[in-house]
Protein backbone atom coordinates (compact mmCIF):
# COMPACT_ATOMS: atom_id res chain seq x y z
CA UNK A 1 0.00 0.00 0.00
CA UNK A 2 2.72 2.43 1.05
CA UNK A 3 4.95 1.69 -1.95
CA UNK A 4 2.01 1.97 -4.35
CA UNK A 5 1.28 5.44 -2.99
CA UNK A 6 4.95 6.47 -3.30
CA UNK A 7 5.11 5.14 -6.87
CA UNK A 8 1.97 7.11 -7.75
CA UNK A 9 3.34 10.38 -6.34
CA UNK A 10 6.76 9.85 -7.95
CA UNK A 11 5.11 8.98 -11.27
CA UNK A 12 3.53 12.42 -11.45
CA UNK A 13 6.89 14.16 -10.90
CA UNK A 14 8.99 12.05 -13.29
CA UNK A 15 9.61 13.60 -16.70
CA UNK A 16 7.63 11.89 -19.44
CA UNK A 17 10.18 12.31 -22.26
CA UNK A 18 13.52 10.81 -21.27
CA UNK A 19 16.61 11.21 -23.37
CA UNK A 20 18.55 7.96 -23.77
CA UNK A 21 22.22 8.16 -22.77
CA UNK A 22 24.61 5.78 -21.07
CA UNK A 23 27.82 5.89 -19.07
CA UNK A 24 30.68 6.83 -21.38
CA UNK A 25 28.56 9.04 -23.65
CA UNK A 26 29.53 12.64 -24.26
CA UNK A 27 26.45 14.77 -23.61
CA UNK A 28 25.35 18.40 -23.70
CA UNK A 29 23.19 19.21 -20.67
CA UNK A 30 21.03 22.31 -21.28
CA UNK A 31 20.39 24.00 -17.93
CA UNK A 32 18.05 26.81 -16.94
CA UNK A 33 20.02 29.45 -15.03
CA UNK A 34 18.25 32.22 -13.09
CA UNK A 35 20.14 35.47 -12.54
CA UNK A 36 17.98 37.99 -10.74
CA UNK A 37 14.73 38.16 -12.69
CA UNK A 38 16.29 36.90 -15.95
CA UNK A 39 16.48 33.31 -17.19
CA UNK A 40 18.92 31.85 -19.68
CA UNK A 41 20.03 28.43 -20.88
CA UNK A 42 23.60 27.32 -20.26
CA UNK A 43 25.16 24.21 -21.81
CA UNK A 44 27.41 21.95 -19.73
CA UNK A 45 29.10 19.40 -22.00
CA UNK A 46 31.22 16.49 -20.88
CA UNK A 47 31.46 12.73 -20.42
CA UNK A 48 28.97 10.83 -18.27
CA UNK A 49 31.11 8.97 -15.71
CA UNK A 50 28.33 7.51 -13.55
CA UNK A 51 24.59 6.98 -13.18
CA UNK A 52 22.91 5.99 -9.95
CA UNK A 53 19.50 5.65 -8.38
CA UNK A 54 16.18 4.93 -10.03
CA UNK A 55 12.86 6.64 -10.48
CA UNK A 56 12.67 10.03 -8.83
CA UNK A 57 16.11 9.68 -7.23
CA UNK A 58 18.04 8.95 -10.45
CA UNK A 59 21.10 11.13 -11.05
CA UNK A 60 24.18 11.20 -13.26
CA UNK A 61 27.65 12.74 -13.06
CA UNK A 62 29.21 14.62 -15.98
CA UNK A 63 32.95 15.39 -16.12
CA UNK A 64 34.80 17.80 -18.37
CA UNK A 65 38.21 19.46 -18.47
CA UNK A 66 38.48 23.25 -18.16
CA UNK A 67 42.00 24.71 -18.41
CA UNK A 68 43.60 21.33 -17.58
CA UNK A 69 41.41 21.15 -14.46
CA UNK A 70 38.69 18.51 -14.08
CA UNK A 71 35.17 19.74 -13.32
CA UNK A 72 32.44 17.32 -12.28
CA UNK A 73 28.79 18.10 -11.83
CA UNK A 74 25.99 15.87 -10.55
CA UNK A 75 22.56 16.34 -12.13
CA UNK A 76 19.23 14.83 -11.04
CA UNK A 77 17.59 13.34 -14.15
CA UNK A 78 14.15 14.69 -13.22
CA UNK A 79 15.26 18.20 -12.31
CA UNK A 80 13.00 20.97 -13.63
CA UNK A 81 16.16 23.03 -14.33
CA UNK A 82 17.33 20.56 -16.98
CA UNK A 83 15.76 21.57 -20.29
CA UNK A 84 17.21 18.71 -22.33
CA UNK A 85 20.11 16.27 -22.53
CA UNK A 86 21.64 15.87 -25.98
CA UNK A 87 23.98 12.89 -26.56
CA UNK A 88 26.86 14.01 -28.81
CA UNK A 89 28.82 10.77 -29.15
CA UNK A 90 28.77 7.40 -27.44
CA UNK A 91 31.87 5.89 -25.86
CA UNK A 92 32.70 2.21 -25.60
CA UNK A 93 32.94 1.16 -21.95
CA UNK A 94 33.23 -2.01 -19.92
CA UNK A 95 32.43 -0.51 -16.54
CA UNK A 96 29.44 1.09 -14.84
CA UNK A 97 31.50 3.85 -13.19
CA UNK A 98 34.32 5.60 -15.05
CA UNK A 99 36.13 7.08 -12.05
CA UNK A 100 39.48 6.08 -13.58
CA UNK A 101 39.10 9.04 -15.97
CA UNK A 102 39.87 11.36 -13.03
CA UNK A 103 43.53 10.35 -13.19
CA UNK A 104 43.86 10.98 -16.92
CA UNK A 105 44.84 14.17 -18.74
CA UNK A 106 44.64 15.27 -22.38
CA UNK A 107 43.90 12.74 -25.11
CA UNK A 108 43.89 9.84 -22.63
CA UNK A 109 40.48 11.07 -21.39
CA UNK A 110 38.84 10.33 -24.74
CA UNK A 111 37.01 7.01 -24.97
CA UNK A 112 36.85 4.85 -28.08
CA UNK A 113 33.66 5.65 -29.99
CA UNK A 114 30.96 3.00 -30.07
CA UNK A 115 29.49 2.31 -33.51
CA UNK A 116 25.87 1.33 -33.88
CA UNK A 117 24.84 -1.53 -36.17
CA UNK A 118 23.35 0.86 -38.73
CA UNK A 119 26.56 2.80 -39.36
CA UNK A 120 28.82 -0.19 -39.96
CA UNK A 121 29.61 -1.06 -43.57
CA UNK A 122 29.06 -4.65 -44.65
Textual characterization of the structure:
The protein is mainly β and 122 residues long. It has a domain at 30-104: Roll (SH3 type barrels). The chain has one helix and five strands. It has one helix spanning 2-13, and strands spanning 26-35, 38-52, 59-66, 69-76, 82-89. The protein has a five-stranded antiparallel beta sheet with strand order 4-3-2-1-5, with no helix packed on it. It is globular. The protein starts with a helix and ends in a 33-residue tail after the last strand.
How would you classify the helix and strand content by structural class?
Answer: mainly beta
SS summary, helix count: 1
Relative strand content: 35-45%
Low-confidence stretches: 118-122
Average pLDDT taken over every residue = 85
CATH topology term of the domain at 30-104: SH3 type barrels
Profile the largest sheet. 5 strands, antiparallel
Q: Tell me the radius of gyration.
A: 17 Å
| Second rung of CATH, namely the architecture of the domain at 30-104 | Roll
Shape type: globular
N to C succession of SSEs: HEEEEE
The CATH class of the domain at 30-104 is: Mainly Beta
Give the strand tally. Answer: 5
Amino acid sequence: MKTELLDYVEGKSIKSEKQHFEVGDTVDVHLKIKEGDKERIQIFSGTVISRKGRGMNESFTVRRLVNEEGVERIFPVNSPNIVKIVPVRSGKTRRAKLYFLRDRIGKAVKLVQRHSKHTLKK
